[in-house]
């Protein structure tokens, strides 16, 4: 793949420092040293050379080969947005995000691989940025190449990608909005998560959209990104999600999976410095809960 980047600063920088400033990992820079190509005004460069203010750097990276242990799937994807570096999809409930022991053939990753192959892409390793539980529906961000994944890593580490969810939780909430700040850790079975002082920091901001007789529709924003975070946080408050069998949510409320939907995400594309926001509508099984 070929990328073009301009040194928009007023400084003369070593190309390595310039790449680091753009979010390139040291591993990716090492790969560029070995088998990539750098050019400025048609002249071949190395990472030890300089890029002047205003110069445009052309960068070619070796392609990422397909992993033979991850099969292609050509089942459909609902594409919300796509360009040369990013793919945003609306994942249906029931489709795993990544291959695992119980399903290695048809997950988001397998379908994206099939999608990329159909496009004739030379990079056939999808990089999942915002992973969702199997039975959680909604918007997902995938980097189509390792360069995009690498330059987005600071936003991932600093939790600056804004992720908002819609959930239906059991019971009546006395607070209409708030911040749940409870650390989360793995349990002994490796499946459940629990609140623990020894766990990782986890913060969820929420507000009630509508209070029904015995459940509530809430918007939840992840300030961190722990496994099962929203599900665990509302369970500890005594309001597990409707349909959430794993965490004791009611199973007789008209939905057969946890009532959780990734509604929107916002991130800044480091390659263009443009803020991007994507929003997807509630799926039918959650929409009908409003009319029970």
Shape: elongated
Counting H and I runs of at least 4 residues, what is the number of helices? 6
List the secondary-structure elements in sequence, H or E.
EEHHEEEEEEHEEHEEEEEEHEEH
Q: What is the name of the CATH class of the largest domain?
A: Alpha Beta
Instruction: Summarize the main sheet.
Output: 10 strands, mixed
Looking at CATH, the homologous superfamily of the largest domain is Pseudouridine synthase
In the predicted model, the low-confidence regions spanning at least 5 consecutive residues are none
Please state the CA-atom Rg, rounded to the nearest Å: 22 Å
What is the CATH topology descriptor of the largest domain?
Pseudouridine synthase
Helix content: 10-25%
Structure, described:
It is a single chain. With 292 residues, this protein is an alpha+beta fold. The chain has three domains: 2-60, Ubiquitin-like (UB roll) (Roll); 64-158, 2-Layer Sandwich (Pseudouridine synthase); 162-262, Pseudouridine synthase (2-Layer Sandwich), CATH 3.30.2350. The chain has six helices and 18 strands. It has helices spanning 15-21, 26-35, 108-118, 146-157, 229-236, 284-287, and strands at residues 2-6, 13-14, 37-40, 43-45, 50-51, 56-60, 79-82, 86-91, 127-128, 137-143, 162-170, 177-181, 184-186, 193-195, 203-211, 215-222, 260-269, 274-279. Strands 7, 8, 9, 10, 11, 12, 15, 16, 17 and 18 form a ten-stranded mixed sheet that branches. It has a four-stranded antiparallel sheet with strand order 1-6-3-4. The protein has a two-stranded antiparallel ribbon with strand order 2-5. Strand 15 and strand 16 (215-222) form a beta hairpin. The longest helix has 12 residues, at 146-157. It is elongated and about 70 Å long. It starts with a strand and ends in a 5-residue tail after the last helix. The model has no long low-confidence stretch (mean pLDDT 93).
């Amino acid at each position: 793949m070929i990328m073009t980047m301009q040194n928009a600063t007023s400084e003369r920088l070593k190309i390595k420092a310039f790449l680091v400033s753009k979010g390139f990992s040291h591993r990716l820079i090492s790969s560029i040293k070995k088998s990539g190509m750098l050019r400025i005004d048609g002249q071949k460069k190395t990472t030890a050379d300089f890029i002047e203010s205003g110069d445009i750097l052309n960068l070619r990276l070796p392609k990422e080969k397909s992993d033979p242990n991850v099969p292609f799937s050509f089942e459909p994807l609902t594409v919300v947005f796509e360009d040369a570096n990013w793919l945003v999809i609306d994942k249906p409930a029931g489709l795993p995000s990544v291959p695992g022991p119980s399903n290695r053939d048809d997950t988001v990753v397998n379908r994206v691989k099939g999608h990329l192959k159909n496009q004739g892409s030379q990079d056939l390793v999808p990089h999942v940025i915002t992973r969702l539980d199997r039975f959680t529906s909604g918007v997902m961000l995938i980097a189509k190449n390792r360069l995009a994944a690498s330059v987005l890593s600071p936003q991932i580490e600093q939790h600056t990608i804004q992720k908002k969810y819609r959930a239906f939780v059991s019971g009546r909430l006395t607070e209409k909005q708030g911040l749940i700040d409870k650390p989360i850790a793995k349990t002994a079975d490796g499946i459940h998560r629990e609140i623990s002082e020894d766990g990782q920091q986890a913060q969820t901001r929420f507000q009630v959209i509508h209070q029904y007789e015995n459940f509530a529709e809430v918007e939840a924003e992840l300030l961190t990104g722990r496994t099962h975070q929203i599900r665990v946080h509302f369970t500890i408050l005594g309001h597990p999600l409707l349909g959430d069998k794993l965490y004791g949510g009611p199973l007789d409320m008209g939905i057969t999976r946890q009532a959780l939907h990734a509604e929107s995400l916002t991130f800044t594309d480091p390659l263009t410095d443009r803020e991007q926001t994507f929003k997807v509508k509630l799926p039918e099984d959650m929409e009908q809960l409003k009319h029970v």
